[in-house]
Amino acid sequence: MAWMYETGTGGFRYRRGCERGVLGVCRSLLQIDCQSVSKEERPLFLRDSYDIIIVGGGIAGLSSAWFLQKAGVDVLVLEKRRLCSGGSKAAGAFLSPKISKPSPYKDYLNNAFRFSIDFYSQNFPDLFYRCGLLKLPLDEADKIRCQHYEPTIDLRWQRHEEGYLFPDAGLIDPQQLCSRLSEKIDIITEYEASCVTYQEGLWHVGRYRAPRLLLATGSEMLPIPLPYLPIKRFGGYRYDVRFKEMEKITHTIHKDLSVSAAWMGRVIVGATYQRGITPAELELSAKNDGEELLPRAQKIVKMENMEILGYETGFRAASFDLFPFVGEAIDHEATLVRFPSVSRGARVPSKAYIRYPGLYLHTALGSRGFVFAPYNAALLRDLIIKDQPIPEHLTPARRFLRWSRKSQSGSIST
User: Fold this and answer.
1) Backbone φ, ψ for residue 67 (5° rounding)
2) What would the CATH number be for the domain defined by 126-175+234-316?
3) Per-residue pLDDT at 168 exceeds 60
4) Contact 357, 269 (CB under 8 A)
5) Are the CB atoms for 298 and 202 separated by under 8 Å?
6) What is the DSSP letter of 22?
7) Mean pLDDT of all residues belonging to the chain
8) 65: nearest Cα among 396, 373, 414
């Protein structure tokens, strides 16, 4: 039995995990309002001890929780706000591949795309719309580049109008997906994981403990300082709109922004990419369309009698080389004490680096969180359960090596 714990103005509210019936509604629901229970007291139904604690209830944390729970791991998820808030909620959840010259990043992205499309279609077919994606070149120079890359496209595609149609691309519903991923997981929302310690073989987050801890905090600050993992944080907003004859849009169109296929009575337009912006400034930008998202979208698709149904805002985080951070966390201080020559360029096998015991990361997914998250989560499961190594491009160990050398030269990025 899984429980959802939400803190409200009156204290904790407990909700038993839903078992979905044929119509997709909850067959069982239990709510108890405890006016006298403070946030620091242990909820009535919650255990103290788990196999793993995951900090972060966005798509990265919940995908990881889903794969681990399916493998028999006892999971607790702690979320600072609500499930699928921030960047996960604001995502248009466009599932799209990449056209570019061959590179490790392109290979990773398209492998993740293939995996995630299969994952959604097999496990959540009612939340996944395989509508296809039409990629339009940005300009004449981009058109020539795309033509040059055609022989290296390793996914199903066809020429369509002026662009490239990928029939397997699609859309996923972010909030419903996160809700379904969490159904059999113990979760506490509105919980600040500010006190994290490691004692006697266990990670302690407040009063909860586990031998393993996974940080999936997205754009939020990590509760444990890991200076070798710098991120770039950016905000964005998207619109849900409807307009005359929108049903004629049968596939998503992407140019300098994305306009989704018509689905569930709406078309999604987005999202923006705004660095150096505060939450208040982002909210104002979305209210006033400061980035001119809708006028730009109208250059791609005619939107007659358009009505704005709503908008979402949120912040995302990405690494400077675009690869997410996935895998075991390196104890940078202990490793530099043992191998001081690493910072001077000495070659030390990454397997020899000192790890924090049982500490893992799954974060910095950037703008493709719903493409990357299931793929990364399966890799993490195999690392934790089967001790299978994570691909080198994703590992914190690779970032540590780069950081230690820059630290010595005084040119660390922040």
Assistant:
1) -65, -40
2) 3.30.9.10
3) yes
4) no
5) no
6) T
7) 87
8) 373
- Across 394-407, average pLDDT: 91
The tens digit of pLDDT for each residue in 127-165 reads 999 999 999 999 999 999 999 999 999 999 999 888 999
Q: Write out pLDDT tens, residues 62-114.
A: 999 999 999 999 999 999 988 888 777 777 789 999 999 999 999 999 999 99
Name the token pair of 254.
């992407």
Helices (H) and strands (E) in the chain, counts: 10, 24
47-93+182-231+319-414 matches 126-175+234-316 in fold: no
Nearest Cα neighbor of 54 from 162, 169, 203 is 203
pLDDT of residue 43: 52
Let me know: does 97 contact 169? Beta carbons within 8 Å: yes
Residue ranges of E strands in 195-306: 196-199, 202-205, 208-210, 212-215, 232-242, 252-254, 258-259, 267-270, 274-275
- 8 A C-beta contact, residue 108 and residue 100: no
**Nearest to 407, CA basis, from 230, 221, 219, 276:** 230
Taking the C-alpha atoms of residue 260 and residue 93, their distance in angstroms, rounded to an integer, is 10
Q: 244-302 pLDDT, tens per residue?
A: 999 999 999 999 999 999 999 999 998 899 999 999 999 999 999 999 999 999 999 99
Q: At 257, which amino acid appears?
A: L
Q: What is the CA radius of gyration of the chain?
A: 22
CB 50 within 8 A of CB 74: yes
Instruction: Classify residue 151 by its DSSP letter.
Output: G
Domain spans of the chain?
1-35, 47-93+182-231+319-414, 126-175+234-316
- Residue 306 and residue 328: Cα distance in Å, rounded? 48
| CATH number assigned to the domain covering 47-93+182-231+319-414 | 3.50.50.60
Distance CA 266, CA 343 (A): 53
Mean pLDDT of the region 365-384: 97
Measure the CA–CA gap between 259 and 237, rounded to whole angstroms: 13
Distance in angstroms (rounded) separating the CA atoms of residues 168 and 157: 9
Q: Report the alpha-carbon distance of residue 355 to residue 361 in Å, rounded.
A: 12
pLDDT at 408 over 80: no
The secondary structure of residue 26, as a DSSP letter, is: B
CB 179 within 8 A of CB 106: no
Could you give the CA distance from residue 56 to residue 191 in angstroms, rounded to a whole number? 10
| pLDDT 10s digits, 16-52 | 333 322 222 222 222 222 222 334 444 545 689 999 9
